[in-house]
Design brief:
- The complex is a heterodimer of chains A (about 110) and B (about 120).
- In chain A, about 0% of the residues lie in helices and about 60% in strands.
- Chain A has about 110 residues and is mostly beta strands.
- In chain A, strands 2, 4, 5, 9, 10 and 11 form a 6-stranded mixed sheet that branches. Chain A has a 5-stranded antiparallel sheet with strand order 1-3-8-7-6, with no helix packed on it.
- In chain B, β5 and β6 form a beta hairpin.
- Chain B is globular, with a radius of gyration of 13 Å.
- In chain B, strands 2, 4, 5, 6, 9, 10 and 11 form a 7-stranded mixed sheet that branches. Chain B has a 4-stranded antiparallel sheet with strand order 1-3-8-7, with no helix packed on it.
- Chain B is mostly beta strands.
- In chain B, about 0% of the residues lie in helices and about 50% in strands.
- Classes of the chains: A mainly beta (about 110), B mainly beta (about 120).
Chain lengths: ~110, ~120
């Protein structure tokens, strides 16, 4: 059974720092992996989707990497800003079924 | 392009009452999902539609929850009767591709409080 883990559950850093959020999964037979952002009281915003054949995806200050063999993905945020404060969730699609398997998220606080 | 629309945004009811949520997906998206998200957890899939057919409702508590997607566009999710543990955010998402493997786009959610 696939399990997705995000550590730490919460992270607080000063503005301007580069930071890395981690996502690990137990079964490497994934179809794709998606990173989302969730602001308080709001829905989920898709940030990056990495297909299983890809190693990384970039969008602006965000870079997501994928290492299937080790069961890990990282979300790198460059030059963090207070507006980046949110909860970041990762989710994987398995090869064998179409459900998204979710991590519990990392709550990120960027201090001005 | 308009996003996924949901209403209402907030709902407070007493236990044993009924409630309904509405979702309008992104135009042209064949697949629609309803999720339940309890505070501090990732979303839990309740039901997935492909056009107006149900693909997966294995985690839907069918004794109290029901959902429909008439004409393969809008969808409603109903809870009757509500329990305290149903307090959560109900998220609707849609994706363009069939088969459930496509990138999912989410609405703002409906926050339900059951007293």
């Amino acid at each position: 059974k696939q399990e997705v883990t995000q550590i730490p559950a919460a992270l607080s850093v000063p503005e301007g720092e580069n930071l890395v959020l981690n996502c690990s999964f137990t079964d490497s037979a994934i179809y794709n992996l998606q990173w989302f952002r969730q602001d308080p009281g709001k829905g989920l915003t898709s940030l990056l989707l990495i297909q299983s054949s890809q190693r990384e995806q970039t969008s602006g200050r965000l870079n997501a990497s994928l290492d299937k063999s080790s069961g890990r993905s990282t979300l790198y945020i460059a030059a963090s800003q207070p507006g980046d404060s949110a909860t970041y969730l990762c989710a994987v699609h398995m090869d064998s079924n179409y459900q998204l398997i979710w991590g519990a998220g990392t709550k990120l606080i960027i201090k001005p | 392009e308009a996003g996924v629309a949901q209403s209402p945004r907030y709902k407070i009811i007493e236990k044993r009452q009924s409630v309904a949520f509405w979702c309008n997906p992104i135009s042209g998206h064949a697949t629609l999902y309803w999720y339940q998200q309890i505070l501090g957890q990732g979303p839990k899939l309740l039901i997935q539609f492909q056009n107006n057919g149900v693909v997966d409702d294995s985690q839907l508590p069918k004794d109290r929850f029901s959902a429909e997607r008439l004409k393969g566009v809008d969808s409603t999710l109903k809870i009757q009767p509500a329990k305290l543990e149903d307090s959560a955010v109900y998220l609707c998402a849609s994706s363009l591709e069939g088969g459930g493997m496509g990138e999912q786009f989410f609405g703002p959610g409906t926050r339900l409080t059951v007293l």
